[in-house]
Amino acid sequence: MARLFPNFSACRFDTPGERRLAERLQKKLEDDYLVWCNVPVGAKAVYPDFIVLHPSRGVLVLEVKDWRVETVLAMDSTQAQLHTGAGIKKVPNPLTQARHYLLQVTGLLEKDRALQQGANTPYAGRLCMPYGWGAVLTRVTRKQFNEAGWAEVMDPQRVICADEMTDSVDAEVFQQRLWDMFTQVFPCRLTLPQIDRVRGHLFPELRITHAPGQFGLFGPGEDLLPDLMKVMDLQQEQLARSLGEGHRVIHGVAGSGKTMILAYRSLHIARAVDKPVLVLCFNRSLSARLRQLIAERGGGDRVVVQHFHGWCGEMHTAYQVRKPVPGRGAEIYNAELVASLIRSVDQGQVPRAQYAAILIDEGHDFEPDWFALVVQMLDPQHNRLLVLYDDAQSIYRGGRKRAFSFSSVGIQAQGRTTILRLNYRNTTEVLAVARAFAHELLAAREADEDGVPQVLPESAGRHGPYPELRQCAHAGAEMAELVQVLRDAHRDGMAWSDMAVLYRTNYQAKGLETALQRAQIPLASGLSTQGRDALFASGDTVKLVSMASSKGLEFVLVVIPGIGQMPHPKAGEGEDARLLYVAMTRALDRLILLSSQPSDFSQRIATAIAQAKDALVGMA
User: Where is the NERD domain (predicted)?
Assistant: First the structure.
């Protein structure tokens, strides 16, 4: 069965004939076929009815018409004249229209050297795959086609008629009609990276930057053609395109692309509605980066991005509600701020139904009453809610476990939940060590469809060096080792912005700031509120980020000092284990942990590294 984008239930069909053709394509093509239905292509957003891609066949563009013979007054090779309720209408000949869309497709692909035929081949520089175009006439039989004389203006070989796409038609015969639409056929075998490049060029919204610490998308006019083009995988793309109306929950492990799906989805919805879209998360650093990302993609005036307490403050200001008096600590102030907003909504001072859609990233850090408040802000006419959740990354609760159902807070997502298990961010080695370290908090926990499961991360199979735990003689030696690690990586060609130092406490961060500044290493520190807001506007700098603020971010090299001081005496072991698990899974390729004194965590990490090595060697 072919893979359809979006999935069949979420496809937008302009005509009944498009729906019937989608059914045939899905049923009569094998599972290595990819089919896109009414999905905009390229920066110009042209809309072919169908694009079909097969690794050994190539790419095909199909235009679908539900015309009847009697409604077509005249047709030549470029246009047709139709009888309509509003009179005679001139439209393009379907084959001319399909060929125009195909040229848009091939024009995007053939500029990429990775998709060109080799220099030593007869057609060097030409597209490495066959391509074709055709029309599907869903209400015209082959006999009617011939009797109407349309074969004079439409190549019969490039047309599928109504009686050639019935449910009873043999699958091989149906496929052969598709591939007869190709002018030239030659052997090809697209690799998975080449298929990703095809998808990345046709649908630039799927591209992911390779810049660490930033999970943004390439701009639609991006000319850079990197050797490695990272795009959403097929499951992520299908999920992002297929999320329909109503409430949705995605349970995804760290590195599974949840934030990327949220960014795509928020922009997609914003283009289709006339009310603002709200994106919320707990983490200030993450909200700043999301805001920058969405603004770069043209959604800044339609998508509101804020961390939850910042949004609560904005609601107070916008509707002239008195804020709590500060001075008793941030935790108390934030709790009173939320309680004040809940009362104001209940009393009608702050209106409900302000947003067409609300998307919540890192929902595992939200309290139940926050969800209940946010749901009231949805306009019931649109009522689109997306919650992204990973209970293993719940780091702001002091290790507390809370059992609650989504329906109890107004989230109606039964039957509309998705689980993402594959971790694409980390190498197999980094993920294996992080899992071994945090095996107790990652213990699988089942839940009913309306509850919160514990999802175990699975590796996507990318490999790299094993994480290292470097033991230092004393605190000064640990700082010196940190500086040397960063300098060595930069000397070997890594940009400063590819590196991050993740800390546990503000006291520790002050010492790290001093040490890195003395070493003249360019630094962007997230110690202050202003620093977190500007973290990714600082150019080529090492990022100094707290473990708690690192959620949603990623870096090629992550260095975590101070393991010997963990778990923190004032924190529970479970809380610090979650923090360290989150910090470890920020590493794309290299993870180095530093310790200058023995501790429970340093021993657990050493054991985890040894266990991961034994397990992976045994699997080799």
Answer: 13-128
3-state secondary structure of 262: helix
527 and 397 in one domain?
no
Q: Which of 236, 197, 204, 164 is nearest to 421 (CA)?
A: 236
Decide if 419 contacts 252 (C-beta within 8 A). Answer: yes
CB 570 within 8 A of CB 505: no
Closest CA to 592 of 515, 519, 489: 489
Region 77-82 average pLDDT: 94
245 contacts 384 by C-beta, under 8 angstroms: yes
The DSSP secondary-structure symbol of 388 reads: E
Region for 54 from its dihedrals, namely left if φ exceeds 0, alpha if ψ lies in -120 to 50, beta otherwise: beta
Q: pLDDT digits over 92-141, tens only?
A: 999 999 999 999 999 999 989 899 988 887 788 899 999 999 999 999 99
Contacting residues for 149 by C-beta, under 8 A, at least 6 apart: none
- Pairing assessment for the beta strands 277-281 and 207-208 based on DSSP bridges: unpaired
How far from 150 is each of 65, 142, 183, 441, CA to CA, in Å?
14, 10, 20, 68
Number of domains the chain contains: 3
Residue 447 included in any domain:
no
Backbone φ and ψ for 587, nearest 5 degrees, come out as: -85, 120
The Cα 322–Cα 311 span in angstroms is 15
Q: H-helix or E-strand containing 248?
A: strand 246-252
CA distance linking residue 173 with residue 200, whole number of Å: 31
* Strands of 277-281's sheet in order across: 303-307, 277-281, 357-360, 384-389, 246-252, 417-420
Predicted TM-score of the model (pTM)? 0.72
DSSP code at position 84: E
Query: In terms of Cα–Cα distance, which of 157, 131, 166 is closest to 52?
Result: 131
Q: For 493-537, where are the alpha helices, taking DSSP H only?
A: 506-518, 529-533
Q: What is the Cα–Cα distance from 216 to 584, expressed in whole angstroms?
A: 21
DSSP string, 194-236: HHHHHHHHH-GGGEE---TT------TT-----SS-EE--HHH
Q: What is the DSSP letter of 116?
A: B
Question: 304 has which bridge partners?
Answer: 278
- DSSP secondary structure, 37-67, as one string: ES--BTTTTB--SEEEEETTTEEEEEEEE--
Q: What is the CATH number of the domain that holds 328?
A: 3.40.50.300
Which residue do the tokens 């990302």 mark?
293
| Angstrom distance (rounded) from CA 266 to CA 240 | 10
Mean pLDDT for the chain overall: 87
Residue 260 near residue 420, CB atoms below 8 Å: no
**Structural domain containing residue 345:** 230-420
Distance CA 450, CA 396 (A): 22
Cβ contact 158:178 at 8 Å: no
Of 359, 385, 420, which closes a domain?
420
Band of residue 218 on the pLDDT scale cut at 50, 70, 90? very low
Judge if 196 and 234 occupy the same domain: no
User: For residue 121, what pLDDT is reported?
Assistant: 79
Instruction: Indicate the pLDDT class of residue 330, thresholds 50, 70 and 90.
Output: confident
**504-507: which pairs have CB atoms within 8 A and are 24 or more residues apart?**
504/546, 504/547, 504/562, 504/565, 504/566, 504/568, 504/576, 504/579, 505/562, 505/565, 505/568, 506/546
Rounded to whole angstroms, how far apart are CA atoms 322 and 340? Answer: 8
Residues 184, 238, single domain; the answer is no
- 222 by Cβ neighbours in 10 Å (0-12 / 13-18 / 19+) ranks as middle
Structure tokens at 220: 């639609």
